[in-house]
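Reopening: Response regulator transcription factor still failing for me.
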Amino acid sequence: MSIRVLIVDDEELVRTGLRLILESEPDLTVVATAGDGASGVAAARRFRPDVVLMDIRMPGLDGLAATRELLGGDQPAGCKVVVLTTFDVDEHVYEALRAGASGFLLKDVPADQLAHAIRVAAAGEALLAPSVTRRLITAFTRRLPAAAGPGPAPDGLAELTAREREVLTLLAEGLSNAEIAQRLFVGEATVKTHVARVLTKLGVRDRVQAVIVAFRAGLVPLDH
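Support: Ran it again with your exact input. Result attached.
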């Protein structure tokens, strides 16, 4: 089954390059491109992509606001959003993740990793590069005002079993399912089951949101 992709970026050259890369993959289809957040939201609602590649810095409605509009509110678009960013520049990436984005890509990502990231996001695996994603979340959390720092643990956190809490901690440390399985001496299918239960109990949509909960609840120190 082909994965439907929408590209949202204000640079025409970037949009063209991404389209050429993705259209060379047999299982990926670019259904549309857009040059700003408002056009991106409209295109997402019209073409119903599986994954939206979303730039952050755009004129008018930026990528952060567009992500919130697509994933929140009364009429979520039902797609995954992967943020396109230049590391250490876009200070709103953390907020995009909190808004529900499934992860992020650096704009200089190799073509094969770009395609892989889209497949991962479409499959519901939120973290493209777990260790890098964790560094990103940590860096931008440090830049938030103190009032936005770790807060009360959500009710679902108390419902986690000892093993589920351990899995959540390892997710927040940036480990993939395979790495968690190796660490805990269990099968990867078992880890996937634990992750699914963690998401359900925390009431979050994906792994990134679970990691955000772990950081904000102080489960994992930012300087860990």
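The two ends are 40 Å apart (CA to CA). If you still see a failure, please send the error message rather than a screenshot.
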